[in-house]
Amino acid sequence: MIRIRNLSMTYRTAQAEHAAVRGISLDVAEGQFYTLLGPSGCGKTSTLRCVAGLERPDGGEIRIGNDVVCAVERGVWVPPHQRAIGMVFQSYAIWPHMTVLDNVTFPLRYKRPRPARSKMRALAMQALSLVRLDGLARRPAPYLSGGQQQRLALARALVAEPRVLLLDEPLSNLDAKLREEMRLELREIVKRSKVTTLFVTHEQAEALTMSDVVAVMKDGTIVQEGAPATIYGHPTQAFVADFIGKTNMIAGEVMAVDGTGARPAATVKTRIGVLRCTSEKNLAAGVTVRVAVRPENIRLVSGGATGKADNVVTGKVEAVVYLGNILDCAVAVAGERIRVQLHPADAVVPGQDVRLAISAEHCLAMRE
After folding, report:
1. pLDDT tens-digit profile of 23-40?
2. Does residue 113 have a cis peptide bond before it, meaning omega lies within 30 degrees of 0?
């Protein structure tokens, strides 16, 4: 439904130039929820605004469905209002002088051919029902809560039945608890509407819980693309492992590599000891690497019951934070501070000597 090829865009001022997007190519299938994820300044919002027609790229091509909406080399440029898109901005951009119903009806007034008044009302009420705001149709828009305003902006974007929905960090203005609730609600609304969605966020939890496909961006390029479970569990480089969720990154040097394939076994010498790991392809002895280990994949052991494949290290608990469902611990191991997530029943305390085990499949060695 969305096809981007070799997209590039540079911001220029009198003093300097900044390449925001550097040759991006991606495909979003019909009905898919596709997320651009990355830190501030990585180019994700610039990419979204190029798809919307709010920015003109310097190069590349954008298709929505079978229509070419931008092809720089051929001089093709379709203005935003002719692209059949709906967009929810970070600020929502709700009209404060209008009611909820009038806000949703507004885009239909400029649709061509323009629907009859009764048809516009029916479509608006249908969109409000989709986001569960039909009971508030006559309420002034400023009297809505943050979550209700977010749903109103979504209803307004969907009312004209766009081919593509563009979401520019629509949950960032909500408080933490409401943001967590709205993740699933937004996902369900989009799936019920069956609209193809391109979503921009810097929040890893949003990307992992809402997306069919996640593209991680850095410095204007896509560095890894895949299903959320793949991005989280099998990062292809240290940046992705470190950016997605909490990760221990341990410097080391490859001693040996056993076998071939996508994830060959490797032995890595680190400050905390020699670790058996899985590794990225084409590593060799002597290569400097970083070993990524998720805190939830480290377990507490006692006695000799470590399991044959485990890497076992000894350390001292430095800090324990109770989070209800887990204990978030910092453990000093040979000069490294290792983050560990334990079950509350483990009941460790600061100053306690502990033994930690990590299975080789959960240690991933990657180049620096």
Report:
1. 999 999 999 999 999 999
2. yes
